[in-house]
Write a sequence for this structure.
């Protein structure tokens, strides 16, 4: 069952005020494109072609995750306050352009209650679609914030669902679980390390099924004083000096942009999907950065294949 808009108007207003300042940045940094056949991936026929198989993650998408994590971190605090007796973890942050979509899937590999928060630029131009009791149900988004809560089941019948959009749509998902589960892991502050430099600082519970560090980096538990640009060597963090932070920050920004682009195309490598040679080359060219450039402000970025 899908519960729609279970939050008070005050909470919805708080969430909208958090998301809206980031909308321009999220849209500008997205590389998701306008495509013509997006509806085919969300059709009843597409669902029935997959319904006898295990499809925990969507196999086809037209979306971006760049910069959506920024408002998600703030909204996560609100969700934790609303559910103090539950373990709360952010499960996905996405921007859908016009013709954006996430194809049919079940999340059956991680069965939990889930909350999906979306922000749509237009009324009734984007939707959450699901299959229940033999029927495909399309639940259109309101303009602004729409909140949905549902359960992803780990046994059949799975909760099949997908997303489509003909406007600008931002979606942030959260998992809810009982605190007494055996595999509960508390959230902690982690520094993301690459080439002995801290490139990002995140809150994470160490569960790679929920999230994992970008390719080529490692995550290390860090204290409150550790920040982006610091050095990590021989299991010790060293604060960045004022004189070096300018140059270091440019290389860190380059790595973060590269990591964001890799995250955008991680879905190319999901099971039952084979990357094309062009897709493999694109991701390898990204991984080769920054070693292939001598100037962090003059980078030749690889072209993303269609």
């Amino acid at each position: 069952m899908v519960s729609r808009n279970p939050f008070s108007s005050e909470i919805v207003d708080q969430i909208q005020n958090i998301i809206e300042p980031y909308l321009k940045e999220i849209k500008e940094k997205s590389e998701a494109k306008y495509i013509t056949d997006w509806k085919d991936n969300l059709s009843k026929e597409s669902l029935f072609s997959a319904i006898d198989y295990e499809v925990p993650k969507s196999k086809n998408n037209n979306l971006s995750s760049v910069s959506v994590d920024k408002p998600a971190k703030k909204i996560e605090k609100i969700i934790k306050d609303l559910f103090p007796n539950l373990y709360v973890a952010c499960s996905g942050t996405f921007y859908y352009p016009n013709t954006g979509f996430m194809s049919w899937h079940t999340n059956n590999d991680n069965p939990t209650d889930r909350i999906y928060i979306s922000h749509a630029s237009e009324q009734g131009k984007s939707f959450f679609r699901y299959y229940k009791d033999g029927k495909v149900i399309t639940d259109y988004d309101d303009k602004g914030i729409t909140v949905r809560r549902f359960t992803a089941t780990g046994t059949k019948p799975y909760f099949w669902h997908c997303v489509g959009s003909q406007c600008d749509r931002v979606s942030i998902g959260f998992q809810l679980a009982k605190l007494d589960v055996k595999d509960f892991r508390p959230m902690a502050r982690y520094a993301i390390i690459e080439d002995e430099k801290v490139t990002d600082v995140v809150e994470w519970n160490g569960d790679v099924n929920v999230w994992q560090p970008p390719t080529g980096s490692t995550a290390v538990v860090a204290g409150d004083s550790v920040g982006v640009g610091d050095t990590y060597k021989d299991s010790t963090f060293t604060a960045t000096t004022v004189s070096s932070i300018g140059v270091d920050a440019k290389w860190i920004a380059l790595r973060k942009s590269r990591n964001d682009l890799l995250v955008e195309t991680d879905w190319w490598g999901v099971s039952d999907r084979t990357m094309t040679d062009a897709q493999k080359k694109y991701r390898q060219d990204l991984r080769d950065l920054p070693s292939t450039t001598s100037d962090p402000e003059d980078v030749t970025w690889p072209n993303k294949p269609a």
User: Anything to note?
Assistant: The first strand starts at residue 3 and ends at 4. The two ends are 37 Å apart (CA to CA).
